[in-house]
Design a protein that fits this description.
- The chain has helices spanning 3-13, 20-27, 31-37, 55-61.
- The protein has 62 residues and is mainly α.
- It has one domain (3-61).
- The two termini are 16 Å apart.
Length: 62
């Protein structure tokens, strides 16, 4: 995912009417890709709180 797609996914996830599936379809990626690049989803939180936001930060965190 591009940095812009990651930002868009996080923004869309703040809206309760959006699902991971609908966001994945919108961005043209799989649900597992969303979970990979938006790791806070696996903790049950939909808000980004001091999590990596760029591809470089995500790769460094892995």
């Amino acid at each position: 995912m591009t940095e812009e797609q990651i930002r868009n996914a996080r923004d869309l996830l703040t809206r309760p009417e959006n699902t991971v599936s609908s966001i994945a379809r919108l961005l043209g990626v799989s649900r597992s890709t969303i979970y990979k690049y938006v790791p806070e989803l696996t903790t049950g939180s939909r808000r980004a709180v001091e999590v990596p936001t760029t591809r470089t930060e995500i790769e460094a965190a892995e």
